[in-house]
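[Automated response] Your request has been received and processed.

Submitted sequence:
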Amino acid sequence: MSDKESSPSDSKIDSTENVVEDAVIIESESVSDAETAPTKVKTVGLWLFSVFNFLLIVGICSAAAWTWYQWQQNQTNDSDTSVKIEAELSSIDSSISKIDGVFATYDAELLQINANLSEQNQVLNKNMDSLLQQILQNADANDALKSQVADMSGRRPADWLLAEADYLVRIAGRKLWLENDVSTAMLMLQAADSRLEDIGDPSLFPVRKLIAQDIQILHQINPVSINSVALALSGMIPQVSNLPLNALKIPEIDDNKEQNELSENISDWRTNISKTWNSLVDDFIQIETSDKPILPYLSSKQRWLITEQLKLALSQAKSAALEQQESLYSNALQQATALVVEHFQLDDNNVKQFADALQQLQNTDVAKDYPRQLQSADALKDIIEQRVQRVFNNNTDTGAL
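Generated structure:
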């Protein structure tokens, strides 16, 4: 850059030298003319020539000074520019070195990432291979299951109905022995028989025959509702407190005030004395005649004890009915009947109805003879086990083939 900038100053120096040469030539020409011209003309021309030379020299010097100043300025500018350029170049070099370091780290990281990706690709390939093998195995297993389902599709509705019939028979047994619900047990057995009828398999007729026998046995059980008997006894217990007892009844004293009123007439003094005497006697002594037998007097404690004994007898009868203990039930009702006959007024309407209800409950048979087991339950269980064993044998045979 400095070489290119110094070329204009050299051209300016060459032009100055050319001007000086032209001036020497002109001076030489003027000297030659002066020699030929007259002396006066020589003096004026010399003077003019001197002034012109002086001006020319001054211009040349000025041009040279300006050229030298410009050249110095250019040199300082060139040095400053070169320093700046060198500083910028050094900063660029440092930046480039930093960038090279960053690229080097990026290259290392990329190499590590590539290595990790290659390892992961290998692992994924292995996993894909294992998954493909599992998928193939599952496909084979599905095909086998489809074949088994296709083989069992014809027997499936019958198997479901048979299992449902077995479930209904088992529920009937639980209703019979746990809840003593005979009617529900019969409905369950009838539903099981309808399921077997829907199958339409002649080999199930013996089982249906056993179900019919179980239903007939349940029909022969005592149909009396134990809950109804217990509820009737529970309703009779609060009525005991309202029943009248056979106790001594003190008759009411007639009011004889009107008959014993004294007269205001003095002549009736004898009658007044008699009335006064009768009123005095009535206050102290009272006599009453009756043809009925005299009953003993019952205190409040005895009345309370009799009513509580009757309530206890009814409660015992209720518990015996719920537990189906016939002897205890009958003894409790007999005890209650004896208490009513001995201590309560039988001519009272409420006592009569209460005694009739006790007699009706005493004539009610609460004993029930439940069968120990249902004959159809074991038969259905055997048939289901035989069919399940047959299915497993067929599956093992097909698997061996």
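Summary generated for your ticket: The longest helix spans residues 39-152. The chain has eleven helices and no strands.
If you did not submit this request, please reply to this message.
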